[in-house]
Amino acid sequence: MKLRLRIAGALIAAAAVVVAGLMTAPPAASAQLTEVTGFGANPTGLRMHLYVPDGVPARPAVLVAVHHCPGSGPAFYSGTEFAALADRHKFIVVYPSATRSGSCFDVSSPQALRHDGGGDPVGIVSMVRYVQQRHDADPARTFVTGASSGGMMTNVLIGAYPDVFRAGASFMGVPFGCFATSDGSGWNGACANGQVVRTPQQWGDLVRAAHPGHGGPRPRMQIWHGTEDTTLRHPNFEEQVKQWTNVHGLTRTPSLTDRPQANWTRTRYGGAGAMPPVEAISVQGAGHSLPTAGMAARVIDFFGLSGGDPTTPPTPPPGGPCRVTYTVNSWNAGFTAAVTITNTGGAPLSSWSLAFTLPTGQTITSTWNATVTPAAGQVTARNVAYNGDVAPGASAAFGFQATHGGDTTEPSAFALDGTACTVT
């Protein structure tokens, strides 16, 4: 019981913030999230949900998307952009669900930290192999990402199963082995507080010991962390960089350092291109709330599933200063709206306000990544602290949930800082 309370007090306390950061509209497609049972060895009774987009080609890629705690696979599906990106780029997404109290994954037991040792990783790998067999998925394009508990599990899977995964992206995670315990508990306060500090060699040795028989290439790794994270503190960011650069035989001298967004500092190790062996993004001012809007697309770029290079900003299209994409997902009495503003002008924005009129009967009940006032009629959305800077060709995204009286019509016009936008 004490263990459950400690986990609840540390990770569950941040859940509302995490969910707010993750929230986007679910993808609008005929494909549906489906639960799969009997997928293979599953010693801890994990649940598996699968999203297979319409029009998936032969030999599709597979992404495992691992939730935070408390959470579930279906919640991570509806609360992140990975399924919408799968619709666009035609890869399959596996959403595991932890079933223990607190809905956290086992990233601490000796079994979990050893290749084929048991625990949650065995069940997740069974899910991957099920998809490879049933959908003829490409083993050379199997990836994993996750947030918080899922970010920690990403490190575990990349470390213990380098023969299964080709790359990983960890949001708010800790190094492989950092949470290790021997007393059966699932919480390591020293690691969570960023107090476990080791040399690169020591961190790398933990990974190599997890699968000593592995002689092949190591998965690439992308690391994300907010500087103000008080649940899994920011020093874990640097410890992960130490670990994965050592695993890849690299120094900690970056090949590239840049700022793709105003509050991001990105470093690449072992190469300056879009898919280096190790990439790390520190998000200034962010807490335990990643990924926020747009970050999932950077993950897909890093995995090589989009064909895009996030180093080079898109060329601003001709025309007016802004373009708005407005996507609605509705049900009988409510809907969510995902709004993307693209700066198509030649000057950067340091803040923005977007005005539009909601049809009669629509009332906003909650928002994310923007403030929207009033709740009905002619409303104005304004940026929050971390997404006001928008370079030419770049985008900012926000969303809201609303009720309706039967009319889910989209607004007919949008004005950015008083100037009409193109609507797509």
TrEMBL record:
Q: What residue range is the signal peptide?
A: 1-31
The protein's matches in InterPro entries, at most eight in alphabetical order, are given as:
AB_hydrolase_fold (IPR029058), CBD2 (IPR001919), CBM2/CBM3_carb-bd_dom_sf (IPR008965), CBM2_carb-bd_dom_sf (IPR012291), Esterase_phb (IPR010126), Plant_Biomass_Hydrol_Est (IPR050955)
- Annotated ranges, domain CBM2: 315-424
Record carries keyword Nucleotide-binding:
no
Keywords, ordered alphabetically: Hydrolase, Signal
Output the Pfam families linked to this UniProt entry: CBM_2, Esterase_PHB
Give one GO molecular function term: hydrolase activity, hydrolyzing O-glycosyl compounds
**Superkingdom of this entry's organism?**
Bacteria
UniProt-listed GO biological process terms = carbohydrate metabolic process
- Listed GO CC annotations: extracellular region
Provide the protein name: Esterase
Naturally occurring in which organism (per UniProt):
Nonomuraea aridisoli
